């Protein structure tokens, strides 16, 4: 239960809520954007185990996020980056998280994005660090993540 609370806290920090409206215009705009987004796909491997996740791209005032589809996602997932441009984006924020087998991990690594207009694909590679039940991040690696993103579309 605590990993889910940690994830909800992280999501609230980037202005995304699971409710219909929040009363905050900026948050409500992000909720609307998430509902209208077209799902892409994230195929990834963690420590030899393969996963598939539907994802959406959202845009905030200062950054972009690849997040698990709120309607169809089976796990918490957030990858934040500054620009929707081709290139290698460093994932160094504690807000880049993924949930696997009832545990939440911070992703430290890179997003290599290939974008054209409002569409993109790319790869993610990095190291995972587990967030414990007290919200503290382990200083030692919990393994690696690598994967491909396809069908990403952002409303610019």
TrEMBL record:
<feature type="signal peptide">
    <location>
        <begin position="1"/>
        <end position="19"/>
    </location>
</feature>
<protein>
    <recommendedName>
        <fullName>FecR family protein</fullName>
    </recommendedName>
</protein>
<keyword id="KW-0732">Signal</keyword>
């Amino acid at each position: 239960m605590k990993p889910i609370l940690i994830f909800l806290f992280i999501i609230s920090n980037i202005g995304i809520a699971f409710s219909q409206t929040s009363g905050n215009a900026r948050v409500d705009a992000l909720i609307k954007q998430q509902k209208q987004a077209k799902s892409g796909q994230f195929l990834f491997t963690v420590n030899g185990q393969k996963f598939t996740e539907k994802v959406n791209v959202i845009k905030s005032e200062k950054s972009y996020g690849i997040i698990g589809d709120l309607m169809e996602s089976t796990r918490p997932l957030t990858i934040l980056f500054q620009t929707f441009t081709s290139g290698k984006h460093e994932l160094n924020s504690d807000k880049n998280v993924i949930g696997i087998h009832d545990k939440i991990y911070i992703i430290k690594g890179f997003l290599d994005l290939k974008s054209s207009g409002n569409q993109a694909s790319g790869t993610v590679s990095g190291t995972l660090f587990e967030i414990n039940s007290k919200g503290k991040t382990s200083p030692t690696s919990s393994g690696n993540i690598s994967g491909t993103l396809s069908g990403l579309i952002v409303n610019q």
